[in-house]
Amino acid sequence: MADAESVKPAARELVDRLPEDASWEDLMYQIYVREAIEAGLRDADAGRVVSHEEAVQRLRRAGP
């Protein structure tokens, strides 16, 4: 996970991995994905998780 001190290097690495013809939207998407993954990892570390079975039950209750 990126903390305040490692955001700049992580951002540079993210930009460096983009293709030369990348758009601002491509960059924003990559930032969004990275933050979503980090948020999920923080939730998991804090114990805010459900089992696969519980997730399936919740999705079935929500229905189409």
- Estimate percent helicity: 55-70%
Gap from first CA to last CA: 34 Å
| Strand tally | 0
Largest sheet features: none
Helix segment count?
A: 3
* Radius of gyration computed on alpha carbons: 16 Å
Structural class call reads mainly alpha
Order of helices and strands: HHH
Q: Low-confidence parts lasting 5 or more residues at pLDDT below 50?
A: none
The count of domains is 1
Which word captures the global form? elongated
Beta-strand portion reads: under 5%
Mean pLDDT: 93
What are the salient characteristics of this protein?
mainly alpha; 64 residues; elongated; single chain
Describe the model:
With 64 residues, this protein is mainly α. The protein has one domain (4-62). It is built from 3 helices and no strands. The longest helix is centred in the middle third of the chain and has 22 residues, at 24-45. The termini are far apart.
